[in-house]
Write the structure tokens for this entry.
Amino acid sequence: MTPRSRTASSELEGKILAAALDILGEEGSRGLTVRAIATRAGVAPMGIYNHFDGKTGVIEAVWSEGFDRLADQLRTNLRAGPRDALFECGHQYRRFAHDNVAYYRLMFMEQLDDFIPSAEAAASSGHALQILVDRVEALQATGEFGADRSIDIAQGIWASVHGWVSLELMRVNFATSPDEAYDALLQAIYHGYAK
């Protein structure tokens, strides 16, 4: 008798997360149920509980992975000068949102009443913000930005680009040339904080 092969734990977890991401992209968070995730992943519902302690654990894993991916993308062009690096950060944020809509919606646009990220998961979002804080501090070191708290400036920049990108994803963007208008927004943000 040939022994049955078992699916590796990491492979099974990857299938579950991929299934959850597919559902998020198609139906939003309202479609995320243990049964729907299990069916899409081709696993027993108990597998969701065994590997993620239920739906909330799956959401947290996808949410954290999204922020990790965003942070990786924001690290693009780290060797550029401080001003160019800040602009690249803005462009990479927008690119991430358009290339990873399901992640972006879960991270920023879905109302998840039963989800409160753990301290570890919340740290994932902090890594992405820290990249922006570092870019702001580099501009402060050159004297281009004032000495306000870098975290406050970074939060303001993030809120501005987030608002633009979120409206764009919701198809509430009436700019004649969205790319040019977004560039103009980044310029306005820079000049708003420049000394």
Q: What stands out?
A: The chain has nine helices and no strands. The mean pLDDT is 90. The CA atoms of residues 109 and 170 lie 10 Å apart.
